[in-house]
Amino acid sequence: MEENYEGCYGPVLSLKGITEKLLQAFVSDTEAEEKRPGERFSTVIWGRAGIGKTSLVRCLETERIKYRGKDYSGFKIIYIPLADIEEVGDIIGMPDRHLCVRKGKEEKWVPESCIGLYTEKLGYSVCQDRGVKQFTAVPEWVPEPDEKGYCQPTIILVDDFNRANLRVLKACMPLFQTYSTIGWKLPKGCHIVLTANPGQQDYQVTELDPAILTRMRHVTFGFDIKEWINWADEEGLDKNVLGFCAYYPEMMFGKLLTNPRTITEAFRMIQSSGIDLNVMMESRENIKNIKNIMNMLLDNEFTDSFATYMLSGERVFLSPEDILTAPEFSKEKIKKLISKEVLRLDIISIISYRLLSAIISEKIKFTQERADNFYSFLFDYGIPIDIVMSILLEMNKSNNLLTCFSWLKDERITSMFSEYYQSKI
Q1: CB under 8 Å to 309, separation ≥6 — which residues?
Q2: What is the pLDDT of residues 129-181, one digit of tens each?
Q3: Neighbouring C-alpha atoms within 13 Å toward the C-beta of 425
Q4: Is there a single domain that holds both residue 233 and residue 153?
């Protein structure tokens, strides 16, 4: 599937790659907040609409982290929909008049609206000779710092930032670079992450000049069909949808409506309506109902292609459970995918990726029979050697694979590893 990254900046990375880069950036942020507080950088995630930029950042709510010697179960996420903000004061704070009050030798500046409290109940008097000062009230979304100026690890997620108007963007420039404004600063422990759509494509965004762009780090979210299918499987989307998207990845982005976000929502609607996709071909009424739901969110091209795929009966997508418990059924499907008439190695790769992910995450518990079926999948189905090798190199990451240690004595495996490492010399 051809991707268009025109108008995006930074390296093109997968979900895993961007997560790693964000965590590396946060380490640099933590160092900068102590050593270079005036030289902070925000991080922008670029990418087309609907691929999961915002969701990617929200996943860090469960990313365990250690900060200042204390363990946290994840980052606190503060969501700022910058495109919805019209008034600069909503993001950098509203101006507030203060007067100076005195009690004995103590002086303090307090909001004008609180003068009555201080003079009538707390025994202060107004210092008429000190005049009036204007302070900026800190917006309510800013985390409350402790007495040393720290807060728990927090991500300020500024969503669709280049959809904001230019006046708001200019007001945010100091915040993005120094983590402060003229009137207040973010507590230590905060990190700013922004999402953006590319300007050179069909998006209504504000053009950014180098003065804004050079205040930020940049990465581009490259859509990975394997990662999406693995995620969609975990979300419980119908296996028929996963199979269709694996077969036709070019359909994931349509002319106007179709993208991974709308595909996900369309099939969630179908599932929540109690509709079983496997009965789609039983009647014209079923087909019409399902297509009507899909057309609420998706382009006609996707809907028509999916209906054709379902009615054809040529569904060959395999779950990890299929491979480990139904070897004959799985072998027949795999052999079809690697036949000269079909030859869909991309789908073989996706199926293998899902199987390995399920095993490593230990969502599937191994028995000796399942280990034997896994072995058969790797070596008896005719799967290309590079895919097999990529799986073997990841096999030390799960207790599930303890039952596979006997494989190390297999001559095919030892020979395969030997050839691989010799090629790296």
Answers
A1: 243, 244, 247, 248, 315
A2: 888 888 877 888 899 999 899 999 999 999 999 999 888 888 888 888 889 88
A3: 6
A4: no
Domain count, the chain: 4
- Is 0.90 surpassed by the pTM of this model? no
For residue 335, the surrounding DSSP H or E stretch is helix 327-337
Please indicate, yes or no, whether residues 241 and 131 belong to a single structural domain of this protein: no
Among candidate residues 109, 136, 163, the one where a domain is terminated: 136
Instruction: Give the length of the chain.
Output: 425
The answer to whether residue 321 is domain-embedded is: no
Backbone angles phi, psi at 323, to 5 degrees: -65, -40
Residue that terminates a domain, selected from 221, 246, 268: 221
Same structural domain, 215 and 232: no
The answer to whether 13 and 219 are in contact (CB under 8 A) is: yes
Judge whether 6 lies within some domain: no
pLDDT 10s digits, 292-307: 999 999 999 999 888 8
Strand order of the β-sheet with 12-13 is 12-13, 216-221, 42-46, 188-196, 150-159, 76-81
Phi, psi (rounded to 5 degrees) for 159: -90, 140
Q: By the 8 A CB rule, do 298 and 333 touch?
A: no
| 228 plus 309 within the same structural domain | yes
Range in 17-31, 197-211, 253-267 with the lowest mean pLDDT = 197-211
The answer to whether residue 320 sits within a structural domain is: no
For residues 216 and 228, membership in a common domain is answered with no
Q: In terms of domains, do 265 and 188 share one?
A: no
- Which helix (H) or strand (E) segment holds residue 346: the answer is helix 345-360
Range of the domain at 70: 12-90+147-221
pLDDT per position as a tens digit, 74-128 = 999 999 999 888 888 777 777 888 999 999 889 998 888 889 999 998 999 999 8
Contacts (Cβ under 8 Å, ≥6 apart) of 183? 92, 93, 135, 136, 137, 138
Rounded Cα–Cα distance for residues 332 and 326 (Å) = 10
Minimum mean pLDDT range among 163-177, 258-272, 337-351: 337-351
* Contact of 181 with 92, CB cutoff 8 Å: yes
| Whether 308 and 368 share a structural domain | no
| Assigned domain for 5 exists | no
